[in-house]
């Protein structure tokens, strides 16, 4: 059952990541990895929000945690794409964009995670 939860959540999360990437490219262009930045920041918020609720407010079964966090949000967020895109920018002479992506992803991800914790605790 746990494997199935991760499988289903991961599939849906990956589709959501792909759709977000396409939407960001259409809205913002393809000259910066906006889609990866957006999914990682949103994912940071949602993981911390969900886990704060799951740990501090509700009893959430391990299968649901696996479905949501490991499956869906694990499939939705992507460190490997972040690393690839940032290094590609640097290798292709876009050092400022590479550093900007590194900075924005880490700082915005931490800020979003803190926002998720605070939002969950305000409920």
What does this structure look like?
- The protein is mainly α and 123 residues long.
- It has one domain (2-122).
- 86% of the residues lie in helices and 0% in strands.
- It has helices spanning 2-28, 34-56, 62-76, 79-91, 95-122.
- The longest helix has 28 residues, at 95-122.
- The radius of gyration is 16 Å and the shape is globular.
- The two termini are 30 Å apart.
- 33% of the residues are buried.
- The mean pLDDT is 97.
> What string gives the helices and strands in order?
HHHHH
Q: How many individual domains?
A: 1
Mean pLDDT: 97
Low-confidence stretches are none
Helix content: over 70%
Q: Name the shape in a single word.
A: globular
Count of helices? Answer: 5
The total of beta strands comes to 0
Structural class: mainly alpha
Please give the alpha-carbon distance between the first and last residues.
30 Å
Radius of gyration: 16 Å
Strand content: under 5%
The biggest sheet, with number of strands, parallel, antiparallel or mixed sense and barrel status, is: none
Which helices and strands occur, and which strands form pairs?
Layout: H1 2-28, H2 34-56, H3 62-76, H4 79-91, H5 95-122
Short descriptors:
mainly alpha, 86% helix, 0% strand
Structure summary:
The protein has five helices and no strands.
């Amino acid at each position: 059952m746990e494997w199935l939860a991760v499988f289903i959540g991961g599939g849906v999360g990956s589709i959501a990541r792909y759709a977000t990437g396409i939407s960001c490219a259409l809205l913002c262009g393809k000259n910066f990895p906006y889609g990866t930045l957006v999914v990682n920041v949103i994912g940071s918020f949602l993981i911390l929000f969900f886990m704060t609720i799951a740990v501090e407010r509700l009893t959430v079964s391990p299968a649901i945690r696996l479905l949501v966090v490991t499956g869906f949000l694990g499939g939705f967020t992507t460190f490997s794409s972040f690393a690839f895109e940032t290094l590609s920018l640097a290798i292709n002479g876009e050092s400022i964009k590479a550093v900007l992506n590194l900075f924005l992803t880490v700082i915005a991800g931490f800020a979003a995670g803190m926002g998720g914790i605070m939002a969950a605790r305000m409920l």
